[in-house]
């Protein structure tokens, strides 16, 4: 900034704001809402206030009017502050960057990105819960972090039931070494070919020993970590298929997802769908996060035993997610204000026929459609001339779902006299 090279400053600010929004604030929503206790909430909000104030001071030279508006809002809860953001001193560095917790969070985000890539590769939506995620790494402290302080964030963000640490990096990946030609070419000259062949022939044990020691001698040349690229690639364990397990290796970490479905995952997915609908209803009703409401549930299935069983088994998760228990609909008082959003309605006979009589497939298809964002689904039907192709149900063929025949966007559409429901 002293040299007025402002274009080098703005990218750092944008990256910082993105991290603040999508990591700190997004991952700690429960704390900000007071779900973990008043003291945690106060500390989190005080920290956020300090960070926003410092950020305003840093951004003031670049966005003078915007930061002034933010500062004047923050002044309302602070006494003895300057009258304007432009009267404040530019903040000083309080400590060096690069602490272990920052490194752990960076690694956590890397794990999240790799897991998302695996889900996308195997057509597993984040709405579908998975049984287990394995994280393989040589750093014991990092493995302790992801099963301890950071484990909760991974479970929630990736919708997995458990995170398993693994310090055997060769269990789910194999290593290969490649010479860094851009670094070694000029230095080795004619010896480059011999060294390159030796590097590519390094065994798994030799590569691990090189990573640990930081150097290796080949053809009388001492090579450092910057001279050799270590590449990890995921490998399936013996007896496991690609449909059952997916993985991704990058740098020093390998992430593995158990893709096998079971009843417990179906129950977790059902509960997540219920919570998602409740949160959308709160948003559409313009409720604040601090507004307390009571939620009542009524199953429209002829046999209500399945939904009752699932909600009972997932009760703890639902209470934690929405901040209140899910009450039986018959307990709803007569004077209660009932809010509703448009919901999909199915022609069960047509859906079952579409799935060639496979009741389990028909149920999975309905769960998938219900998990979709209502407005996006409506837009897809419009673009597809009232028809969409669903080809992401595991081990099931693709089907064409027709609006007005198999599914209806609202209950009103289903019961409309002009609609053919045969």
UniProtKB/TrEMBL annotation:
Molecular function in Gene Ontology: ATP binding; isoleucine-tRNA ligase activity; tRNA binding
Keywords of this entry: Aminoacyl-tRNA synthetase, ATP-binding, Ligase, Nucleotide-binding, Protein biosynthesis
Keyword Protein biosynthesis appears in the UniProt entry: yes
Superkingdom, natural source: Eukaryota
Alphabetical list of InterPro entries matching this protein: Anticodon_Ile_ABEc, Ile-tRNA-ligase_type2, M/V/L/I-tRNA-synth_anticd-bd, tRNAsynth_Ia_anticodon-bd
Oxidoreductase as UniProt keyword: no
SUPFAM superfamilies referenced in this protein's UniProt entry, alphabetically: Anticodon-binding domain of a subclass of class I aminoacyl-tRNA synthetases
Record domain Methionyl/Valyl/Leucyl/Isoleucyl-tRNA synthetase anticodon-binding: where: 1-132
GO biological process annotation, one example: isoleucyl-tRNA aminoacylation
CDD domains, alphabetized: Anticodon_Ia_Ile_ABEc
Pfam families registered for this protein in UniProt: Anticodon_1 (PF08264), DUF5915 (PF19302)
Protein name in UniProt: Methionyl/Valyl/Leucyl/Isoleucyl-tRNA synthetase anticodon-binding domain-containing protein
High-level lineage: Eukaryota, Viridiplantae, Streptophyta, Embryophyta, Tracheophyta
